[in-house]
């Protein structure tokens, strides 16, 4: 199907604009948020088409040895400023919130500060482009936590879009199937 001349010109203009933006910001910066075991790492690995762990870099750009990060049983030990990059797809830079499912206000404040700083950053390379908020749908006991409600009620994201990712759907399907099998 051939596009009329004006539509073709508009499509070409948009293509050139996208190329110019990619030159200014070769990496798409994502903040991923979600409670412990919400499937955040799995989402990132799937987006980057890998099963490998990311490389993590501190604020100065030095790689952090993953063995130095001591995750607790409840949640990982993260600095939201650290950059996670998968070698399989270096077009993305991910930031992982430490999590605030425990309801601690200082964790929410850290996220608010990060979003505020990154969303207003004049340097487009350091600008936050999107927030991916992971909510597992297999947790019937607490589908939305108070901490998550606080985030949506209190954290002004400015012009940074928030995309809700409902995770663990595969687990829900397995649970439903198990329930149906038991009914027979």
Automatic annotation (TrEMBL):
**Residues covered by the G domain:** 29-168
Family matches, as Pfam families: MMR_HSR1
Molecular function in Gene Ontology: GTP binding
Q: What is this protein called?
A: G domain-containing protein
Q: Which organism is it from?
A: Laccaria amethystina LaAM-08-1
């Amino acid at each position: 199907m051939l596009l009329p001349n004006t539509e073709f010109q508009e499509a070409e203009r948009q293509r050139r604009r996208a190329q110019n933006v990619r030159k200014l910001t070769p990496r798409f910066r994502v903040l991923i948020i979600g409670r412990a075991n919400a499937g955040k790492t799995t989402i990132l690995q799937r987006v980057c088409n890998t099963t490998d762990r990311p490389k993590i870099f501190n604020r100065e750009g030095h790689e952090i040895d993953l063995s130095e990060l001591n995750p607790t049983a409840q949640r990982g030990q993260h600095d939201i400023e650290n950059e996670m990059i998968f070698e399989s797809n270096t077009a993305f830079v991910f930031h992982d919130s430490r999590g605030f499912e425990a309801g601690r206000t200082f964790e929410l404040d850290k996220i608010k500060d990060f979003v505020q700083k990154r969303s207003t950053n004049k340097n487009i390379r350091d600008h936050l482009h999107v927030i991916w908020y992971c909510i597992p749908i297999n947790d019937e006991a607490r589908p939305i936590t108070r901490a998550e409600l606080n985030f949506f009620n209190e954290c002004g994201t400015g012009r940074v879009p928030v995309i809700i990712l409902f995770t663990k759907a595969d687990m829900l399907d397995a649970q439903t199937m198990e329930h149906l099998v038991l009914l027979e």
